[in-house]
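Researcher: Sit down with what I've pasted below and flag anything odd:
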Amino acid sequence: MTLPTNPRPQIGDRIIDNSAPPDDSAVREWIGPQAFGHWAELRNWIDEFYPAVFEPDWLYGGKNRGWSLRYKKTKAFTTLVPEYRRFSAVMVMGGAEREKFEERRYVWRPQLVKLYDEAKTYIDGKWLTLGIASTDDLHDVTALLTMKRPPPSCG
């Protein structure tokens, strides 16, 4: 892995070395042990509740966006973005998902509703970027993903 041009990475910097997708040890070193615990927990949760549904795919978005790990079948499910000392999950909420979110608006944590309300809506949907720094954040993401696409075992 080559060093970034700024020798001291800033919180939120992306992995931009495009020589190869990052492996688990590179991701752990970049995002830190606590964030990596949440990263591993979310990946394990997706594998457990959506067995053999997704083949995670590393994408390189150039030097500004860096590497991200996309989960997609026919439609995008979520994309995990490793950032320096943290990571985010990105999901696109289409019309059906936005309707479901609104039906449950008062069940969600206030921070999530605020993030949802402030997210820009594009032609393909509302793009939510959720920083995952706690178990509560992780729960928000898994609840949104379950709402977006119920696991196969749930019908």
The longest strand covers residues 76-83. The CA atoms of residues 35 and 133 lie 6 Å apart. The first helix runs from residue 24 to 31. The radius of gyration is 16 Å.
